[in-house]
């Protein structure tokens, strides 16, 4: 625990070198020069802890808006003085069931679970964050595997080398997300669009610079590989997020 959480000046120095000199920390670590800088896994744990701590302070919803308010409005009825809607013609129960298309069982179950999540959105939010933090440990080796597939011709390339790059890349992504959250928290509207776009492009560009330094390839080839890995990994993460959202919904009944 002390090895993971002990903070000193090396944390800030390592983060600064990670941002300012892409690939340098990985190169130093793989060369055996590891005492002066924070190890990749410890750096990842600290950045991950900071990110999810920031997520825990994000407001989940508003008591006067969102699904809960819509349900409350539907149960209470129209506001006093509002124009009443024309009454729909009365139909028998058999006619209504005949006209209503039957939904599959999984759709009904998903709808029920979504309604349960609306009752306690904060609990659903924290369950999603807990599942997300665990799933990142599975996704990181996937990212390292993509790196390894694109560098199979390197005879002295090991999976652990690509894991170091994957750890550092995720730290950069966490820092970018923290900065985007900081921009969103600032007063005013739409002024942060351009900085937000630039920050969004930072991880793939940083990855390209890291690949160029570590694998001694040209800039165009490094950019192409970084763009390809980012696109494929982005699709994988998107599918994983959808799965986590469904998994985090409370059980029906």
Structure, briefly:
This protein is an all-alpha fold and 253 residues long.
Describe the structure.
With 253 residues, the chain is an all-alpha fold. It has one domain (8-58, 117-248). 72% of the residues lie in helices and 0% in strands. The chain has helices spanning 2-5, 9-20, 24-30, 40-56, 67-76, 93-99, 105-119, 121-150, 159-185, 193-215, 219-248. 16% of the residues are buried.
Order of helices and strands: HHHHHHHHHHH
Q: Average pLDDT value?
A: 77
- Structural class per helix/strand content? mainly alpha
Largest sheet descriptor: none
Q: How much helicity do the residues have?
A: over 70%
What's the helix count?
11
Name the overall outline. Answer: globular
Low-confidence stretches: 60-85
Q: What is the CA-atom radius of gyration, in angstroms?
A: 24 Å
Query: How many separate structural domains?
Result: 1
Beta-strand fraction estimate: under 5%
Number of E-state strands: 0
Map the helices and strands:
Layout: H1 2-5, H2 9-20, H3 24-30, H4 40-56, H5 67-76, H6 93-99, H7 105-119, H8 121-150, H9 159-185, H10 193-215, H11 219-248
Helix pairs in contact: 3-9, 4-9, 8-9, 8-11, 9-10, 10-11
């Amino acid at each position: 625990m002390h090895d993971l959480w002990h903070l000193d000046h090396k944390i800030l120095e390592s983060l600064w070198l990670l941002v300012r000199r892409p690939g340098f920390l990985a190169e130093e670590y793989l060369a055996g020069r590891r005492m002066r800088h924070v190890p990749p896994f410890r750096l990842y744990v600290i950045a991950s802890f900071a990110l999810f701590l920031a997520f825990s302070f994000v407001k989940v919803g508003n008591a006067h808006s969102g699904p809960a308010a819509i349900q409350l409005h539907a149960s209470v009825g129209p506001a006093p003085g509002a124009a009443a809607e024309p009454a729909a013609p009365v139909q028998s129960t058999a006619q209504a069931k005949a006209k209503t298309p039957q939904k599959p069982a999984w759709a009904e179950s998903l709808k029920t679970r979504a309604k349960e999540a609306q009752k306690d959105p904060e609990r659903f939010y924290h369950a999603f964050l807990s599942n997300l933090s665990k799933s990142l440990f599975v996704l990181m080796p996937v990212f390292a595997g993509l790196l390894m597939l694109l560098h199979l011709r390197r005879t002295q390339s090991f999976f652990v080398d690509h894991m170091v790059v994957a750890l550092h890349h995720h730290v950069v992504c966490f820092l970018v997300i923290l900065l985007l959250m900081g921009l969103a928290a600032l007063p005013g509207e739409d002024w942060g669009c351009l900085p937000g776009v630039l920050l969004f492009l930072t991880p793939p560009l940083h990855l390209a610079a890291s690949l160029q330094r570590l694998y001694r390839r040209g800039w165009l080839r490094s950019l192409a590989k970084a763009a390809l890995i980012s696109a494929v990994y982005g699709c994988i993460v998107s599918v994983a997020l959808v799965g986590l959202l469904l998994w985090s919904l409370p059980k029906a009944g």
